[in-house]
Each structure stands twice: as C-alpha cells, then as structure tokens.
Design a protein that fits this description.
12% helix, two-stranded antiparallel sheet, Alpha-Beta Plaits, single chain, binds iron/sulfur cluster, 2 helices, globular, 26% strand, alpha+beta
C-alpha cells in the first residue's frame, strides 16, 4: 500500500540535548528563515546546508525566542510551550 504510514517518515527531526534542555528541529519543515539564528541571545543555532542546527544547546538560557520566532514552528524546546 503506497499510503501506508511509515515510522521513518519523520526521521528528519534532529535532537540536541545538554544540561537537561532538549531542542528538536524538524528539518523537513525548516525553510532556512534564519529567524532562530537572529533572535537567539546565546548563539545556539547554526545553519548547515540550509537547515537549522543547534550545536551550542549547552549555552541555551531557555528564553523561548527561537520557538516563538520560527515561521514554520519547526523548533520544539523542552522548557517552552
Ligand atoms: S527559524 Fe525555523 S525555519 Fe527558520 S531556520 Fe530557524 S528553524 Fe528553520
Ligand atoms: S530558548 Fe532562547 S537561548 Fe535557547 S536556543 Fe532558543 S532562543 Fe536560544
């Protein structure tokens, strides 16, 4: 069946953990808007090949600006609604 859902369909979500904080970025929905890079006061994000990554999650201060600013809502943060 072509329409059958596969567990692997959403495997483009990348997870970054440090200091009890988890940031997840759904790369399928990331459109390289760079809002996360611009608003993050701790410089957590970096665009790699047109997709957001969070290599400096250890520096995150849980301000939630990234989650709020992302136009496609593809960032999930363990401390943000
Ligand atoms: S703001 Fe959202 S869509 Fe834009 S680069 Fe960051 S994660 Fe991707
Ligand atoms: S919650 Fe704030 S400090 Fe943490 S990654 Fe998002 S914008 Fe940066």
């Amino acid at each position: 069946m072509l329409r059958k859902a596969r567990i692997g369909d959403n495997m483009a979500t990348k997870k970054y953990d440090a200091n009890g904080i988890t940031i997840e970025i759904d790369e399928d929905r990331c459109i390289d808007a760079e809002e996360c890079v611009k608003v993050c006061p701790a410089n957590v994000f970096e665009i790699v090949d047109g997709k957001a990554t969070a290599p400096r999650v250890a520096d995150c201060i849980s301000c939630c600006a990234c989650v709020e600013s992302c136009p496609t809502k593809c960032i999930k943060h363990s401390a943000c609604p």
